[in-house]
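Protocol step 4 of 5: obtain the predicted structure for the target chain.
Materials: sequence only (see below). No template structures provided, no constraints applied. The aim of this step is simply to have a reference model before the mutagenesis design in step 5. Sequence pasted as it appears in the construct record:
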Amino acid sequence: MSSFYVENFGCRATQADGAAIEQQLRERGLDRAEAPTGADFVVLNTCAVTAAAEQDARAALRRIRRQNPDCKIVMTGCYAQRAPAEVAALDGVSHVVGNSHKHTLAQIALARTSETNLSQIREFIPVSDLEQASANRPRAAEIFVSDIFAHTELLAAPVFDSANERTRPNLKIQDGCNNRCSFCIIPSLRGRSRSLPVQAVLREVNQLVAAGYREIVLSGINLGRWGRDLNMEGRASSPVQSSETRRSSILSFDDLIRGILSHTSIEKLRISSVEPMDWTDSLIRLVAESPRIAKHAHVPMQSGSDTVLRRMHRKYRPWHYREKIEKIREAMPDAAVGADVMVGFPGETDSEFEETQRMIEDLPFTYLHVFTFSARPGTPAATMPNQVSLHIARERNRILRDVAAAKKLAFMHSFIGRELQAITLNVMGRDENGPWTEALTDNYLKMRIRGTLEANQWLAAHVVDVENGEVLGIAAAKAEQGFEREQAVESPPVQPRSGERIQPGA
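Step 4 output (structure tokens):
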């Protein structure tokens, strides 16, 4: 029987696409290989958010070609959508399948004769019809790419990474983006914002609950925009619509969250990144008041400078952003509050950077994702004047990472002596103090709990220390019994599973 391996690059949306591709291939009778070296078909599900992301995909292609020269390699994802002719010219690529055709990837990859089978794929448009510049460029790989804005499909399948495969599936419920930030290439690669219909979301969540999962992470490219494209379909019968939104004929993300809480028994929902202006007072209140929603808010910031935000074409001003973060912290004093920040945007002066630094220092962030600007072809920012030199941008990145590290450390230390709720992960090991089990707290802290504990269990843990970027905890029942004295009893050795020291994600 043929086997496959899918390697994902980039964001959680890409991982969700990869899970859907795996599902396609399994439905056609293929088995998943443990590594690309043992697979007949390898799918590289690429990212294009930065030049480095595309470079990572090319490096992986070269590595797989060396290790498994006989396999068929399919390149898909955002890099394939952005530059199909460039990707097709890479040595070893058999097919290039853009985001526009991901929903037919298995059919494309497994077709034996392209003229007989591939021509039957709905809405297939050869890239030569789209890119005149590549018409005379020799290539061996077949290309399946068309206008992403003409497609309405949304691939959705739960994602299970190796550390969390038994605990925290990631469910993509939204794709695409209608914003046009000047630095971002994603809208042109993923298309318009589109949402997984209400009933489909509830069905997926209930299936995961029935399978035993106790936390689900909701994700999307622009998650807070969920439902805007569903307003003309089935409003009256929607099981998640409130009386207020029924009157206004608008389905909101808040409605969906309430619907999931009402129509499923999931123990914990975690919301991934939501844009600042979509953190409405209603959503903040809902997250704060429900014990079934993780106390975790990730709110992209990008810059604390008004002039930079305007050049970025962001839809909020620094004072709007500050107000949102302060409201979140007031409603949830112990919540994790994170942000994405970009340094080195074209024209960013020292004073503009310092505005961002001061704002970060002032606000109650508990972690940051700091990115250095990467010019993406076709975006307005790529041709803006006064591009910032790389060494200056990297130094600014370092400064903000240092600020973020200090804030994260202070946040972790604030919980010493307190009790936190945490879900046990599928990562275990042993150190000089005996066996331990990795967990993730409700407020997004990595925790190492003493003892060997079954994965996928919510429990209360007493925080005793902070070490190597993790809080150290003792399960509450153990703490009450005097856990330290129990360590004198010899415990069986526990071997960590290979490759599973993975940073949990929101």
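Step 4 remarks: The radius of gyration is 24 Å. The chain has a mean pLDDT of 86.
Proceed to step 5.
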